[in-house]
Write a structure and sequence with these properties.
With 103 residues, the protein is an alpha+beta fold. It has one domain: 2-Layer Sandwich (YaeB-like fold). It contains four helices and five strands. It has a five-stranded mixed sheet with strand order 1-5-4-3-2, with helices on both faces. Strand 3 and strand 4 form a beta hairpin. The chain is globular. The two termini are 23 Å apart.
Length: 103
Amino acid sequence: MQEIADIVLLGEASLDLDQGRKFYNQLQRGVGDYFYDSLIADIESLYLYAGIHSRHGGYYCMLSHRFPFAVYYEISDHVAIVVAVLDMRRNPAWLHKQLDKRE
């Protein structure tokens, strides 16, 4: 576990969150906002737990507590950098492709 001074959410990860919110709001009104708030809470937990997660595709991988999503991040100079927030129900080849694009 590493001491984290800040968390940075990259643009592509922010787009991932927006797409997830839209998807869940299409299923039922308000669920998308709950999804977004839940994932933000998971991401904020990196202040305490960054570095304890297993590594996948070169990034640390934290599973969301309430939705089937994973937060992929790296640590640099006491900053957790969130590079992707991906739906774990997708094809594993798609997931690897997404992570490869973000290096």
